[in-house]
Design goal:
Elements lengths: L37 H12 L8 H13 L3 H15 L3 H13 L3 H9 L7 H14 L3 H14 L4 H13 L3 H14 L4 H13 L3 H10 L4 H26 L13 H8 L6 H6 L2
Helix pairs in contact: 2-3, 2-4, 3-4, 4-5, 4-6, 5-6, 6-7, 7-8, 8-9, 8-10, 9-10, 10-11, 10-12
């Protein structure tokens, strides 16, 4: 995806031409019988010459399909992917375009099948990321994090995949685990609004309200965006609480005299200066 992972190629339809034929005993020399006369024929030929040229190379056609998807025309892109594969055959690029289009048109099972075709190709990272996004969309953020971890291992400098991994971990209640991928994503691409939003979400989830507010102000986030992030923060807090309750329910050895409780140690270890990337965000 990101992707998170379009172009318009819609030929213009030719106008319908109506030719009136004389009936009965008309003896005009211009009548040529039923069908299209010479003048109408020339008009059709001129109109066809002015039509948008069809892509004449596989690469150009793939570019047009990608452009369709960037414009949100995912259903149309599916039709053109079918046409492309009929003419040139399928390949990892078409599998990825198809998988993204199927995911964006609410066909998760078919999208998962298409992403799985990428796992043994050079586009395997995109395949794992797509599977992670499908899992996250279904609410299974633990599975989403697993798939996105695979994507990040294969593409360690992909800021979008790193951001997606951080978000999945947050929604799974693993606030500490979200920190490193999100900081990597932020330093790799400080201008990506989705990454910035996920960083703010992490700050809110980790209790750093002041730093979160500073970043939102510096980035001039719109009120509706801030409201959405705070709504997500509430979901993260609920997931983290559930995860904490689950861990407390497991039998643990009692600490010896003078030993600090595990929760206290974890909270102390979480106290550290704000990363430089956040300092730059809030400047």
């Amino acid at each position: 995806m990101a992707y998170r992972l379009p172009f318009e190629f819609i030929p213009r339809c030719a106008s319908t031409l109506v030719v009136c034929c004389l009936l009965g005993a008309c003896a005009s020399k211009d009548v040529t019988g039923y069908g299209v006369g010479p003048q109408a024929e020339r008009a059709v030929m001129a109109q066809q010459a002015n039509r948008d040229p069809a892509p004449d190379t596989p690469g150009m056609y793939l570019g047009l399909i990608d452009q369709m998807q960037s414009q949100g025309l995912y259903f149309a892109s599916l039709a053109h992917i079918d046409a492309y594969e009929k003419q040139y055959g399928a390949n990892p690029d078409t599998h990825l375009l198809r998988a993204d289009a199927l995911r964006m048109t609410d066909q998760p099972a078919a999208a998962a099948d298409a992403y799985s075709l990428l796992l043994k190709t050079p586009l395997a990272a995109r395949g794992y990321r797509g599977l992670g996004l499908i899992a996250g969309a279904s609410g299974d953020f633990a599975h989403a994090a697993q798939e996105l971890e695979q994507a990040v291992q294969l593409a360690p400098t992909d800021p979008v995949a790193l951001s997606d991994l951080g978000y999945a971990r947050l929604r799974d209640g693993d606030v500490n685990g979200a920190r490193v991928p999100l900081m990597k994503a932020a330093e790799l691409d400080q201008n990506n609004p989705k990454i910035v939003s996920n960083v703010v979400l992490y700050l809110l989830a980790s209790g750093d309200q002041a730093q979160a507010l500073a970043v939102m102000n510096q980035q001039k986030l719109a009120p509706e965006v801030r409201t959405a992030i705070r709504g997500e923060a509430a979901k993260v807090a609920a997931a983290a609480h559930a995860q904490t309750r689950g861990s407390q329910g497991q039998a643990q050895p009692r600490p010896g005299p003078g030993a600090a409780a595990a929760g206290t140690v974890a909270s102390v270890q979480g106290i550290e200066p704000a990363p430089r990337v956040l300092q730059r965000f809030a400047q």
